[in-house]
Design brief:
two-stranded antiparallel ribbon, DNA-binding, single chain, six-stranded antiparallel sheet, Endonuclease III, domain 1, 14% strand, 8 strands, alpha+beta, TATA-Binding Protein, 2 domains
DNA sequence: CTCCAGGTCCATA
DNA sequence: TATGGACATGGA
């Protein structure tokens, strides 16, 4: 059962009350894990981002507040429609409707990972609410190290995305599918994308533009059907499909079993010399069901230096 | 120099 | 159905 989230508005401030476990600092640490991140900014106590809403982008600064989150919108007045869109986006971004009690109960019985999970209590799965962005990011991240991936994303976003300046800082949004389709292969090459990556990304953009693909249609399917739809896209394999199911479509049981980060984190946390085998990963996945995605995310968090 | 990074596709047998 | 190579680049 999803957990209830309530909120109140005072002028440009939105106070979101989170029921259940929530630790903003654990979330902030994950959001701050790479200095080359270009789609949001993290300061000591605040998370800053331009939200890509339907009418116009809105810059927010979010910080901890007793029992929840205080979201300040920083540019212009906040109509009721806009406010509820901001709320919806923030709820998805921080997975605020998830009831974590069953997850914690289940993991308490897990002798190997209960300490890790306990140490990150209140961490929620940080999502990528925008499906196009999530798909592109999964393609960009394939096979290469994360630092390089963040640089590729940054070159793409800072060359073709939109930006908004506030108080001397510039905030970017991910380019639209239409914009991505206009990018020349030459540009992608100069940004050091492999040919595979930009062909896949353009193909995905094409699927959005032609209406073959939309988040709206995927959320109405079963997880299995959504998985198959994602797999049918060139460049989206099992890892990417599961990545998108967990980061964008809200499936806590999505399980990117091929993920190298997951393998390494398990190796360390289980105190092994080798990475776990595929069959062991499958067994672990069965044990964690339906929280494979959450466990994976918690393990990713342990990799932050 | 070799191997590995948040994999995936394609050719070949 | 299964396996090998290519892909771009940087760091260990």
């Amino acid at each position: 059962m999803p957990q209830k989230v309530t909120w109140t508005q005072k002028k440009e401030d939105l106070y979101i009350k989170v029921n259940g476990h929530f630790d903003f600092n654990h979330c902030l640490k994950f959001l701050n894990r790479n200095p080359a991140e270009c789609l949001h900014r993290v300061t000591t106590t605040q998370f800053w981002k331009v939200l890509p809403l339907t009418e116009q982008p809105v810059l927010i600064a979010a910080g901890a507040h007793p029992k929840g989150l205080l979201v300040k919108t920083l540019d212009g007045s906040l109509s009721p429609d806009k406010a509820s869109e901001v709320i919806r986006y923030v709820i998805e971004l921080f997975d605020l409707t998830r009831d974590l009690d069953p997850f914690y109960k289940q993991m308490e019985a897990d002798p190997s990972l209960n300490r890790v999970v306990r140490s990150l209590r209140g961490l929620r799965l940080i999502g990528i609410p925008d499906l196009f962005e999530a798909l592109c990011w999964s393609v960009i991240g394939q096979q290469i190290n994360l630092n390089f991936a963040y640089n590729l994303k940054r070159r793409l976003v800072e060359s073709t995305g939109s930006s908004l300046s506030w108080n001397g800082e510039r905030y970017w949004t991910f380019p639209s599918p239409e914009t991505v389709l206009q990018i020349s292969d030459e540009d992608f090459k100069n940004w050091q994308f492999s040919r595979g990556k930009y062909v896949y990304i353009k193909g995905i953009a094409e699927a959005f533009v032609t209406g073959t693909l939309s988040k709206n249609s995927l959320v109405q399917m079963s997880m299995e059907d959504a998985y198959e739809s994602l797999l049918s896209l060139k460049g989206i394999g099992p890892w990417s499909a599961h990545y998108v199911l967990m980061k964008c479509l809200g499936y806590s049981e999505a399980y990117p079993i091929q993920d190298v980060g997951l393998h390494n984190a398990l190796k360390y946390q289980l105190n092994r010399d080798e990475k776990p085998s595929l069959s062991e990963l499958e067994d672990l996945g069965k044990r964690w069901h339906p929280w494979q995605g959450y466990v994976t995310f918690y393990l990713w968090h342990t990799l932050i230096t």
